[in-house]
Structure formats: C-alpha cells, structure tokens
Amino acid sequence: MEREYELCRHINNPVIVCAPDGIPVYKNATASVLDTYAHSTLEQLVHSYRPGETPQSHMHLDSLGMDYDVVSSKLEDGNIMLLLDNTAYRPKRNHILYDFQMEDILNSMSDGVFIADRNGVTLAVNKTYEEIFGIPGHEVIGRYVGDLVKDGTFSDSVILPVIQTQSSVTKLLRTRNGKEALVTGKPIFNQAGELVMAVTNVRDISDLNALQYELQRERSLSESILKNSAQSENIVVKSPAMERILEYAEQIAPFPTTVLITGETGAGKDVVANYIHRHSNRSDKPFLKLNCSSIPENLIESELFGYNAGAFTGASKNGKPGLFELADGGTLLLDEIGDMPLYLQVKLLRVLQDGEIYRLGGAKAKKIDVRLITATNADLENLSETGQFRKDLYYRINVVSIYVPPLRQRKEEISFLAEHYLYRYCQSYGLNKIYAPEVLQCFNQYDWPGNVRELKNIVENLIVSNSGPILTLDYLPQSFLKGFKPAAAQQEQGNTLRAITEITEKSLITQALREAGGLRSAARVLGMNHSTLYRRIKKLGIPYHGPQSRIESPLEE
Prior knowledge:
The protein is of the alpha/beta class. Helices cover 41% and strands 19% of the residues. The chain folds into 4 domains: 2-86, PAS domain (Beta-Lactamase, 2-Layer Sandwich); 94-204, 2-Layer Sandwich (Beta-Lactamase), CATH 3.30.450.20; 211-228 and 410-554, Helicase, Ruva Protein, domain 3, CATH 1.10.8; 240-407, Rossmann fold. The strands form 7 sheets. It has a 5-stranded antiparallel sheet. A hairpin with a 4-residue loop joins strand 6 (112-117) and strand 7 (122-125). Helix 2 (29-37) packs across helix 3 (39-47). The chain is elongated. The N and C termini lie far apart (78 Å).
C-alpha cells in the first residue's frame, strides 16, 4: 500500500483509507486538517462503513459550512474514500455574501473586510483588504487563519481571539508591504446566540499617521503652557464633587485662614492647595511645599525654620533661610502633616499663634506673614485622641476643612484625565498615539487605588512601552485586566472604526486649539473653515469657551 499512500499525498482532496473492519488507517494531509475541525463528523463517516457496503454518498460538515460528495472504492485489504467538494452547493453555502449583491457592496467599501467562519477558516475578503495587505484573495480563502499566521502571511490574527473570547478585539497590524492597519474584529451570532462567523474591518492608518506627523511638525508648541498646565488659571474638572470643591476653594481663598485638606494619596490635594493660592491676594508671592513624610526627622526643623552659622556640625557658614522665610508673603503647604514629629508640632503651633519663627542656633525672632495649608491622608482627629498628634494643633489647622474624594468616586474624570496625560506626554516625547477603545473601558472599570497619580504614571508607561500608534490592553499590567469585562454597549460603540476615527479627530482638534490659541488660527492649521471646525468641536464635545480661549487643563496631581 505504500505506493498508493504516496499517490494520495499528492491529492488536494481529502482521502481516507479504511481497513476491512472500517477503522481508518491512513489520511492524507487535507483529510487530517479537516479532522482537526470536524472530528466527530469524519469519525461518523468512517464508522458508517461496513465490509461489503458503500459508505454514505454525501457528507455535510456543518462546523465548516462545507459539503462533500463521497466517492468510495474497494481495495484488496480495505476501502478508500475520496471527498469531493460539492461546488454546485458553494453559492448556496455562501449565500450571505451574494444576497442583495453583497459581494459588490463589500468591494465598494473603503475599509478592508475579512470574513471567517466560526472555526477560523477564511470565507471572503474584499478588494480593499487585498490592496491593504497586498495579498490576493485566492491565497487566503478556504485556509485556516492560524496556518496563515504560521506561514507568515499574517503577522498576527484578530479573528482567532474574537472566536476564542466571542467579543470584539482591536489590534494594530503591520502588513507585509509595510503598511500599518487598524483591525477591529467582531463576532456574529445567530438567533440562538451561537457564534457563526467573525468579521474584521481593516483601515489603512499609514496616511493618518503621516497627517498627524505633518500637523505636529507645522505647529509650534507653547512650552510655557505645557510645563505649567497644572498652574494654569483655568482648571477643568468633570465631576460635580470636584466642581463644588473648587467653588469652595475660590470662596475661601481671599482669607488668610489655615486650611486642612484631606484625602487619599494621589487624589489631588496639593492641586487644590495651589488653586487656593492662585485665587488669593498672595498669588504673586511664593507657593512652597514640604512633604513631612519624605524628609528625615532630624532635617525637617532646619528645612522649615532655617539655621544660623554654626548651629550644628556641617552647617553653612552663611546660614540658611527656612521655608517659612522663603514663603514670606505667600503660601506654605505642609503635606502629610500627620507625620510631623510631636516636638515640631509645638513649634509649628507657636508660629501660627505668634506669627514669628526662630532659626536653629538663633535667639532673635523673625516676623513672617505666611498662609499655612496642610494636607494629610491620615485621620488626624483619631490621632489627636490617641496622643499621636497634638489636639491643640489639630484644632488650629482645621479652621477650614476640604475633603478631596478618590478618583474611583469621580468616574466622570477618568477618560478626560487619560486623554489629557496622553496629549501631554505625546507632546513631551514627540509622539502621536491614541487609545484603543477597550483601554478607556478598562480605565473606567479600574478602582485606581493610587488615584490621579497612578493614572498619570500608567499613561506614561503605556506610551513608552508601546512602539505602535495604538495603545492596547497588551501593555497594561495584569492587575488592571483582572476582572475586566468589556461592557456590551460600550464595546458595540467603542470598537467601531467611526469611534476610533472620532477619538483621533478629537485629539488633533484639541491639540490645534491648545497650541494655536484661537478658533480661526486652529482652523488654518487644520486646513478647514472655522465654521466647520466650530461645528466639529460642538459635535465631539471638546471644551471650548470662546474665540480666544485655550483648551483648559484638568485637575491633576
């Protein structure tokens, strides 16, 4: 039989050889591939054979959406079966592609389309897909996508993860002709909720990337705006809670009273303090900050009050002014005030009561005029009850109290902050990147224990870790992905190419408005009429408040 087996190896159709008892003893390569995806069907076929009988003349592989005619021939020591593709049935099998001239419609689309069955076997591609990937349709139709990745036809697959997860997937792929393509795959289900096929939309973003680069090259970035975004007069927030906080901060800003700001680490306490300073009559004077937990206990006193020459071993011969002196006339923020040593708390209380300080090694008091703002993530009231914080100092600094809620309680701000930091880091590093929609979904579901500071760091990590223009879930830490479930409604909307295009358009318009300074100037940079630009601003929900307004910076820490 070796001669016969060698002959079967060169036959493109599936061939199965059975022993006299009906047990398959040989399958050529094509039959083995089919067996991978339709094992139960093929086993049923071969076991239906009985010695002296002819197997069934027709076989339908429902899992593959294919039909075969079965031709059987008796061998001296068994039976050989040849499976012939029933070509007459093919138009019926692919009726979804032919109804209403669907093939013509697909070929008229500017986006590439790739369709595979539920097992990952290619059913159809349109002309645009062939042009983007530089691959003729006949090279991929009828082939398993996994094999196309293995042999290098595709660099990666979207179809396979769509089938595996039965959810939408977006990836950036590089074609073999050097183009960058944004590929979004989506599962298709029947009325029973069963997966029947997977469809991908493909967009060539090479031209888009070139446009972004050209836009960035032609525009001049105002470095002062970028570097001082947190100190801009305009701070934009997206949650009612933060709006109320800033309204209250502006109300109490003109008064020299002490303020205690509480909240979790990274929530934005120092930003609120800075906001108070900028809206006070001290805004033209220094705003200084000391983190009481980050400086050794033996150095905090000299940092706050300064020292005279010879005050201690190693002291400068000229002495050194402390932060209270340097902030004279302005505002001093003492962050993590709960970590201040008890003996220094006594001296701080004296400063608040008398308005004067003593340098280390000095005997002469110096009058100062400093507005004190303190911040902490600790429960100072409880610490004062247990003796870990002076109760008299607690009452003295807690004249006005402001609580900054954590980011997880300000869900409205997450996407806005993420876009802001994306823009800022891209400008700093000379890059052009956008988020894949599912990344923002993941951000909105995450609890953010590190608050705004953690969000800022994660965005920077995504930008520097991902070499492509699309920031995907692949580069997020596993802690973010644990328990992440794409919301169906969000996914349906976000994973469309229209949504991705809108994200990019919003980023470009926002960047132009920030840097150009006004509507008409931004319109000239973007090469469009200013009325058209204004309509796009309104449609996309971009914050813009007048012809000369700049896009404002969000609250951040």
